[in-house]
Fold this sequence. Notes:
Shape: elongated
Largest sheet: 8 strands, mixed
Strand order of the largest sheet: 1-8-4-5-3-2-7-6
Strand content: 15-25%
CATH superfamily of the largest domain: Glycosidases
Helix content: 25-40%
Number of strands: 16
Distance between the termini: 30 Å
Catalytic activity: Hydrolysis of terminal non-reducing N-acetyl-D-hexosamine residues in N-acetyl-beta-D-hexosaminides
Number of helices: 19
CATH topology of the largest domain: TIM Barrel
Organism: Gossypium darwinii
Radius of gyration: 25 Å
GO molecular function, one term: beta-N-acetylhexosaminidase activity
Number of domains: 2
Domain Beta-hexosaminidase eukaryotic type N-terminal: 40-165
Active site: 337 (proton donor)
Amino acid sequence: MLHLSEKPHFIYTCLxxxxxxxxxxxxxxxxxxxxSLTYIWPLPHELTSGNxxxxxxxxxxxxxIGKGGNFKILREGFRRYKRIIFKQSSGVSIFKNLxxxxxxxxxxxxxxxxxxxxxELKLGVDESYTLFITKTxxxxxxxEAIIEVNTVYGALRGLETFSQLxxxxxxxxxxxxxxAPWYIKDKPRFAYRGLLLDxxxxxxxxxxxxxxxxxxxxxxxxxxxxxxxxxxxFPLEIPKYPKLxxxxxxxxxxxxxxxxxxIVRFAKTRGIHVMAEVDVPGHAKSWGVGYPDLWPSxxxxxxxxxxxxxxxxxxxxxxxxxxxxxxxxxxxxxxxEVNIGCxxxxxxxxxxxxxxxxxxxxxxxxxxxxxxxxxxSKNWTPVNWEETFNAFAGxxxxxxxVHNWLGPGVCPKAVAKGFKCIFSNSDVWYLDHLDVPWEQIxxxxxxxxxxxxxxxKLVLGGEVCMWSEMVDTSNVQQTIWPRAAAAAERLxxxxxxxxxxxxxxxxxLHYFRCxxxxxxxxxxxxxxxxxxxxxxxxxxxxxx
Length: 544
């Protein structure tokens, strides 16, 4: 994928100096919560709040009611959020005898009502929830926290919101919940809210991928688009074709089928789908390290050889193996940036084209459509990068999901022809473009240019893309965050909610960035000229 070149260094140096000087002003003012704002990210669909401050019991118990009350996902999710909420109040103080220990708390139980007895995770699963923080009624002074949902995945989203309402108070050394009573009725604007992670250009250990999935759940993103394989490396084990991962960088930079399954299971417990991508016919040079017959020639190592049955037998074998790992109904077939001229310069491919009365562009269409047929035969819905739509929209399978990246204007054309679309305009939603500020990401609109309501429903949502040519474990989280949060709110919150709070977004985003840091996510400063740059001087997390 393409990258933007960096601006001259002296501009950045000047901005660093200005920011460093400005920090002295902030030292005298400090950060204070603006109580007119809602510090929940992303903004809920509908809410009301009060002005009371409550205490939350560190032994907060869980009461599960309804058809879905026995799901392991929900019980584990509650324990996970309980650890997050009470992280600072769970230790034993050596001064415990020197201060008063609170014994009465306002909130001591969380009730979750789940109306569905299914924990199937599929695109469009109901993630809505209603959260109440209210008095128990009667003469009692006790309060209760209630989450009512249709599915366990709505409960996970509600638990995330509840966790963001809670904050540790350093004076009382207790967890407090402000602005009670609360009524929050919430649901996502789009069903697909994704983050692409490229593990071919750089390998990411399994634990790093899990930490990224955790961080996605904090912003209510729900699709990890796993770009596993590309021309640089083939790190995934394929049992039917065991030499394919000879194309990995080293024998230590690989994913076993067990690794991949663990990642998918881990993601499900956070309500996150994993969409695998196997990009064909281009971006596939690494395949031929183990199976050289896939290369048209030693001087033409991609696209894959379109003339051989072995090519498509191998693709079918790959799909069969990984279908056992990835249950998500969408499967990405790539199809972008195909150098079809290479085929025309390879004698046996050139002859095959002649024999079949094809030009290279026809062979490109033939390959993509054949790959779609194989994917559909495995009960997948194919997703393709927009080049396939731009080149031969009339021939694509009607089930195809068109994935935009080459600038604006593609989704309106795709939905006009009846295709579903995913928005990832590279001008604004490619996170490797380090000079794209959070405001541009935040203001990008997936439905731009689509006025018809029925056509708007064909836009599944969008995703920000973390291509990894210049990203590895050392800097991936600070390149993703906090800018990915800007897209996350755009994809979750209604346009009405966003327009009402647009002038205060930066204040809220600073707060969310600090929340990520408290949870161990290495989120970079919000307003640095280049994303992922370190702080330019001493200052509070809430000002940088």
